[in-house]
Fold these 4 entries.
Entry 1:
Amino acid sequence: MAAGHPCVALVPARDFETGKSRLAGALSNEARAGLGRWMLERVLNALKAARGIDEIAVLSDGASVLSLSLANGAAGIRCPARDLTDDLETGRGWALERNARMILIVPADLPALEPPDVEAMLAEGERENPPGGRAVLSPSPDGGTNGLLLEPPGGLPFSFGQGSFERHREAALAEGLDFFRFENPGFSLDVDTPADLAPLAEKGVPIPEWLSAITTA
């Protein structure tokens, strides 16, 4: 890791074969698996190209997910995927072993994410140096958390899931962390339902031809 700026990115990712079940009505099992691979690769490419990210780890129960992660220069950490919070705690421990000063948690389903989006979030973490640390959170459209930058890495208990943005905000304030709400299209465009596919084309994301046919149907 780069001396003086150790930031580890953690990417939780479901098995390609079982993820995105809410898209079953729009995509076949094979297409949903392809979508998962495409989105994860885009997230990893954005993180790799962003200045300030020193190491990347993908947390998953899927052998194909971990294999793809290694092929794209990220570490693969096998997690049982029973609970996202437990998986992220495993990732946090991995980051702490590497003396990370900051951790950045990025879901694997943000295909609009670009390196400047990541760098902009990191810049918010560097903007101030409050004594208690800082939490930068990006909300999802449904009130969840689509990005979390945390310094120090152990300064905040994880509480991902529905309504997690507000829980994380309250926990950050309770822990004495400086809190910043980060609004960014790259972090906000996640894909959970068929309706989430159309904005990708509208934003100009270069999507595969087979997926483009679905978004314009």
Note: The first strand starts at residue 7 and ends at 12.
Entry 2:
Amino acid sequence: MAKISTAQIKELRDLTGAGIMDSKRALEDADGDIKQASAALMEKGLASAAKRAGRDASEGVIEAYIHTGSRVGSLVELNCETDFVARTPEFKDLARDLAMQVAAMNPSYVDRDSVPEDAGDVSEDEILLDQMYIRDTSVKVGELVTELIAKVGENVKVGRIERFALGE
């Protein structure tokens, strides 16, 4: 087993946001390989994100985005469990990115659960969490939310969305 330095632990923590002991264990299991340890931590985080899905998320932020020219805007409610997480830069950045996504892609619903039964056939483009992310089309919006859950260790969910455009 390779000796793990504090510099390696710090690098992995900066990369993943994981705790010190989790980072150390992941590096030990990966024989010091940062990429392998990062992948292991992400898997562990994504698995634990599924467990957090049922927890109450009553804190958060409402983020507004107004597109250049002030002709299109959106509001997004992004919820989490504590106001501490709501104040983190990662949480605020995700809220901003989601507001831009809503302004650009005009989804009708947040997720499959919010689609009314009488809505008929609804495409992925009409559901925010199923849409491809506008800044990186290899990732779905729902995956961004799941990654944040894994990083912050709390349930995070999109509460409500609204898009406004002049003339609509």
Note: The radius of gyration is 18 Å.
Entry 3:
Amino acid sequence: MKERNKNNIKAVFFDIDGTLFSHTQKKIPESTLESLDRLRKNGILIFLATGRSLDELDKMSVGDILFDGYVMMNGHMCYNRKRELVHSLTMEKEDCDILVKLFEEKALAMSIVEEDRMYLNYVDDMVRQIHDDITTEVLPIGEYKGADIYQFILFYPSEECGKWLEGTKKCKIHYWHPMAGDILHSDSGKAASIEIILPFYDLVKEEIMVIGDGENDIDMIEYAGIGVAMGNADDKVKEHADYITTHIDQDGIKNALEHYNLI
């Protein structure tokens, strides 16, 4: 019999898109669902660490799974098992003023993400295609009315995105699609928020594994005791991983967890 959990891993944090949820299958692969169940039976906690909001989560099959904690909106909002808020971080007002002006002028396609509301300034074919690529309904057109902003979503080529942050003080961009990325508070990120919530569970970073595939997963892959990149991850993500598993559609989650004897 294999030696179980020789790395003393007590919790695993999962990205959603391209990690738990396959956009080719339009669902969570069966081997992944079985693996999550086996983790639980082995006494290992399971967490989400995603750029998505709780509202988006509940529109996906991932929302049917009970996790022990939720790092949402790239760490801007974090919840415990009961979905009670334990940490939040909003964008700086001065930066919001600059970015909301771009949104209102429709200088480029953008979304604003509030606590319980997401909306676009306009929709074109590119925006529709990106939403289709991530198995998500196109957001409604909306108007900013002064609520706290947790992040912006920018629809623009990654190599030319920097100019849109000119004048901001506490912003960064993490791309999750060649033509779309999240504008975040520079103090945020999955790793920063994971570090904040670990004490709630009496965990330290050496006791966690993280699995992801996108640019916004690099910080947590570097931070965790074990960082795993999916086989379908970007090459620059794989460079930071302790282990590269197979493609999501080739039992990537199952193979990673078995490699480290967690299931």
Note: The first helix runs from residue 30 to 41.
Entry 4:
Amino acid sequence: MAKREDFPFIHRLRVRWQEVDAQQVVFNGHYLTYLDVAISEYWRAVGLPYPDGFTHHGGDMYARQHTLAYHAPAVLDDWLDVGVRAEHIGNSSMKIGWAVWSDHRLLVTGEAIYVHTSLATRRPEPVPTSVRDQIQAQAEGRPVTQLRLGRWSEVGEQAGAVRKIVFIGEQNIPEHEEWDADDAHALHAVVLNAAGLPLATGRLITIGQPAGQARIGRMAVLRSMRGAGVGREVLQALIDAARAQDTRTVTLHAQTSARRFYESQGFKADGDVFDEVGIPHIAMRLDFQR
């Protein structure tokens, strides 16, 4: 019998009206959708956000086989805990075990076989070593990412890759407005996975700032890793670096959509909303206690 403690990752979701039949019992086919949602979150937790974590290697994971066993029904408004674990990694295939509970009741158990496939040839190819390492690290409770601090000459390639995807590609900021002279003397933070895929970045500027102040900017996280905590990790590293330089106040210009994120880290609004590169922003500040 599947036990929760045997699963290193569990994702929680709620049964919606559209997923139940006339008796308000979950239609059996929806459990594969629950698995699909949970395994996407599993890859994110492993440090392999889908699809970026696999396309970085030139590959993808394709489902080949599913088996399910139904033990009890879920009903409307049940909270479901979907457990996911990698049970075996072969040469090119991977067996994923999974189970669903509602409270103490075991509802479904299953296995899924995925095959790692080359995007170029559409044929199976070996699961990369770094993918195996990420999965093992998560299963053992070890960090699945690493944070690097450095100058542009040291981490600029990785930091620039994230900013190009997020700011230039996703937010349509003109490229000539993204790169500036501050990059050369700023301290940059980058979070990467085991394969060196950059996931998040930000920078700290002290040169040219008022005495006792530093400025954080260019905070960016790949869409597929948002909500996984890597943005918070970057922000905290930059705050710690500012504090170590005897800074009294850290300022930043936050996109208004990210205001609550910065507020959760102690920043406070400092003025009215204004436009910057066509996106609404608000000035925020964090004052260190002395």
Note: The helical segments are 30-46, 52-55, 129-139, 152-170, 175-178, 182-185, 230-244, 259-264.
